[in-house]
């Protein structure tokens, strides 16, 4: 029996609908009728209702407000809206409130019966899905109390080394499970929907345990059929497979095929992506944790490569230690300065591909992206002259990089920043004065270590007068040539004091000071400390 509530401020409409429909023949019951949304709201709080038939325009609380209330407080109630011709487009906006059907007034008995029939099908479908979910949940609850839980706990303790090996083996032998094999390998299967890849709702999190049990059943069935090893649950949110057999190409291919089949069947059954990380081979049970750790590294590649991942760490090469992006950063900066977007884009793409190929962890991947942001920001700051603003913008963006759920989302932020900065540089460089000042900044940065670097040299390089140069340079940077040169030399000296053990006079010479004593005076004026004090503080 389907319980229906009718809401309309016109009593004649309510009477007509109530009297012209054979509710019993439709397996329905008209449990009440109200003349406005406020009355309907009070009614549903005290009586069970399956379907609400409501007009839009009513006093006190209209149909839209009622739909919003029902959607938020009673999401299981299905809503059907009546609307006049002029209100129909407005009524369609109610889709955000879960409205199931719309009827254009005047409503005929035949139309209403057809709509109610469709809504009943939706209710049946929802009830069926809920019953199926409840059935799985009951099965899941039974599972916790039977041998499967003991099996999973014993193998998990064996793999993670959190239990005595003999104790775990004894428990498994009592279940008729013997793990004697030439080699072992661990695979981890993780549901993408409950990882950091996706933003999930609270009710979805509650489903994770149930969905993991479904994944376990699928894995257990396929692994058992193939006689390839044994599946077990790791905690309440992950499934693992302990493969047992002979280390050879044939069995390696079978493992890959088994994991692929589990991935596909799970996707069909629960509509979610599953990522699989397969660890390397080990010879003894005491080494299982090494294979598990490798499989975990494979799962972590999901940040770089996206979901529904299947990665066998036997096929991966250690590449992290040799990864360097400095050459690409230099070419990228050159493209920003010369206005060649293709050069910028190609180097961005190459850096991203290098990071993905190296399979670095999230922290390192984010660090490389932050280097790109710093390079772009310095290019921008050299033209705008507003170093504080550029630094604040850059730091804000760098802080957002680790917050992104996937590497691709972080890369998108970097690409957007690069494009925006490139366009800003192009606009500024269209002004000859800005371009000349930017060229001067580049000239200073590449020659600051020359003690005899002076204003006349730069003006000769740019082929402009010293007075004109001083004007445009001050407008762009907010500083004079001497101030910029001095600041840059001291900043470079600070870097050397922090990262080397060079003596003060050696650093003075490297950054363009011919007189070490004068270097000390300038350094203290800018930093408030002598070079020796600064070095002692930073080298602790």
TrEMBL record:
Response regulatory domain mapped to chain residues: 3-120
SMART domains in UniProt: HTH_ARAC, REC
Keywords (A to Z) from UniProt: Coiled coil, Cytoplasm, DNA-binding, Phosphoprotein, Transcription, Transcription regulation, Two-component regulatory system
Predominant subcellular localization, coarse grouping: cytoplasm
Subcellular location: Cytoplasm
Coiled coil: 119-146
Function summary: May play the central regulatory role in sporulation. It may be an element of the effector pathway responsible for the activation of sporulation genes in response to nutritional stress. Spo0A may act in concert with spo0H (a sigma factor) to control the expression of some genes that are critical to the sporulation process.
Name under which the protein is recorded: Stage 0 sporulation protein A homolog
Source organism per UniProt: Blautia ammoniilytica
